[in-house]
Amino acid sequence: MSSAASRGGGIVLDGIAHTYGSFDHSLAILDGISLVVEDGQFVALIGPSGCGKTTILDILTGLVPNQQGIVLVGGKPPKEGRADTARMFARDALLPWRTAYANVEFAASTRHPGKDRRFLIEALLRDVGLTGFEHSYPRHLSQGMRQRVALARTFSLESDYVLLDEPFGALDAQTKLLLQDKLLDLWQRTRSTVVLVTHDLAEAIALADRVIVMSARPGRIVADLPIDLPRPRSVRALQKMRAYHDLYARLWNELEGAAGLGGSAAKETDHAQNA
Ligand SMILES: Nc1ncnc2c1ncn2[C@@H]1O[C@H](COP(=O)(O)OP(=O)(O)O)[C@@H](O)[C@H]1O
Ligand SMILES: [Mg+2]
């Protein structure tokens, strides 16, 4: 990772709009999205299904071309495969023919060829709690363990900008809490800039510096709430704090308002948390 002084610019979205489809059959996905994420900040993005959260990450990684407005990541327009940008999905997408270690190594060596990363990879696998499973193949690992590998892989890229798309959405409650704490550790150590898309309000508050709430499609930003809970945080310890529950209630209201449909956003969030 480059030092904090050598990187710069954060993430800038200015007046982004996005439409999918052809001339006679188009669907407005995003409308007037403007957002600045400072370098080193941890931002959570929540909103009803289909409001364009994944599309924002697609645009930030250059997977989907930007149609309108300005997008800058670290002061430059996005481009696929940029070494300073890493993305993690809800499902791990590990290479089945490679072990846990080899999956991480493959990703890291693609990004940083020729550099010996053995020490870093071993430390990362240890950090996410995979000691003893380094040489296991994905088919022999649980979903939770595969997501641990995917988390290690994401941070092995040593990218300044880390984009996470519902990374813990498919996990049981206990594994999710463990991995949320691991993610906080990794972020605090690397000081990367994180955008986390999540359906889980508790996760957003526990992890982020700021929670951005989006409206139903076409997605607009309807709230931007600072989360001024003390750090370092432990997800489990936070749940005993009054301030945490107050923020939860406030955000729940924002999310209900965001749906504009008598609380369907909140219901969807609730549903997704229990799915
Ligand atoms: N490649 C695509 N072509 C057409 N429509 C798409 C495409 N990708 C996503 N969409 C549609 O755009 C909307 C927003 O999708 P997405 O960004 O995935 O929302 P979210 O992540 O908030 O659930 C959805 O209705 C989805 O069906
Ligand atoms: Mg999505």
Explain this structure to me?
The protein is an alpha/beta fold and 275 residues long. It has a domain at 4-84 and 159-228: P-loop containing nucleotide triphosphate hydrolases (Rossmann fold), CATH 3.40.50. It has 9 helices and 9 strands. It has helices at residues 53-60, 100-111, 118-127, 143-156, 173-190, 201-207, 235-238, 242-259, 264-274; strands at residues 11-22, 25-37, 42-46, 68-73, 85-88, 161-165, 193-197, 210-214, 221-226. The strands form 2 sheets. A 6-stranded mixed sheet has the order 5-6-7-3-8-9, with helices on both faces. Strands 2-1-4 form a 3-stranded antiparallel sheet. β1 and β2 form a beta hairpin. α4 (143-156) packs parallel to α5. The longest helix is centred in the middle third of the chain and has 18 residues, at 173-190. The two termini are 36 Å apart. The model is unreliable at 1-6 and 261-275 (pLDDT under 50). The protein binds adenosine-5'-diphosphate and magnesium ion (MG). Residues 53-54, 165 line the site of magnesium ion.
